[in-house]
Write a structure and sequence with these properties.
With 65 residues, this protein is mainly α. The chain is built from one helix and no strands. The model has no long low-confidence stretch (mean pLDDT 88).
Amino acid sequence: MTKRARGRPSLRALLLAVNLFSSAIPISRLSLFRVDEHELVRQTESELIAQAALVSAMLSVRFWT
């Protein structure tokens, strides 16, 4: 066995750190996807409300004038 330099992490510790870091990236991205999804739902909802108001106005002009 060779002596390890003082303060230098072992190979096991380095591999564990790399694995934890590479596992944390996708997990953190899932929360960002959730935020993106909520924003898209809000945007789609407001666009549908605007379209419904337009269709309602067009129908009221066409049928009640």
